Amino acid sequence: MDKFKQFLKKISPITETEFAETISYFTELNLQKGDYFVKQDKICKHIGFIISGTIRIYYINSKGEETTYGFCQENCLTTSFKSFLSQTPSHLVLQALENTRLLTIDYEHLNLLYKKYPTWQNIGRIITQNEFLIMEQYASVLNNETAKEKYLRLLKEQPNVLQKASIEDIASYLGVTRRTLSRIRQEISK
Predict the structure, then answer these.
(1) What percent of the chain has pLDDT over 90?
(2) Closest Cα partner for 97 from 162, 164, 168?
């Protein structure tokens, strides 16, 4: 709970009393490696704060292939935001790459927090803004960086993912083949 409290305090001031009153709206969820937090074509009912573990976010492209969109790790929020906010079926899949502990809240309880606590309205607004910035950055990286530059960014920003994700998942995230990823790794190690 302390990690979550610190995460919230970085976003917006929240008193000990507000935190104590609102934490009962959250539930701990334990996923085993390979378990799904969100399934494709299902409405995403929860948003989760990752206490420990790693979640891979991917979608199935028009050829039926998995395309990795990103990775979420400890001290981050994760969900299929479009599905969660609009309560429509998700086109994304969120799957645990390792045993993962989350603190989750469902759509209805989050909206109760928004109504009852102005602090939570502010937290929700800032989280939404941050997610928009992350998506915009992802689009920019996707269109403007080479696979090698994307790999170096992943190495710098999320080095633990390289030990937890499969070669196929990393190659998919970079938009390259497994062979190209091997070549990039060899170039960097020289």
Answers:
(1) 65
(2) 164
As given in the structure block, the two tokens for residue 22 are: 């609102």
Q: What HEC string does 97-138 produce? A: CCCEEEEEEEHHHHHHHHHHCHHHHHHHHHHHHHHHHHHHHH
Cα–Cα dist 173/43, whole Å: 24
Burial class (CB in 10 A: 0-12, 13-18, 19+), 118: exposed
Report the distance separating Cα 92 and Cα 42, nearest Å.
Answer: 9
The pLDDT, as a whole number, for residue 145 is 84
Q: Which residue has the tokens 């292939």?
A: 65
The answer to whether the CB of 141 falls within 8 A of the CB of 153 is yes
Planar angle of CA 74, 147, 91, nearest 5 degrees: 55
DSSP structure class, residue 90:
-
Identify whether the C-beta of residue 67 lies closer than 8 Å to the C-beta of residue 61. yes
Position 28 pLDDT exceeds 90 = yes
CA dist., res. 105 & res. 179, Å (int): 41
Token representation of residue 39 = 């399934």
Per the listing, tokens 């645990």 go with 96
Cα separations in angstroms, 102 against 32, 55, 111, 145 = 11, 10, 19, 32
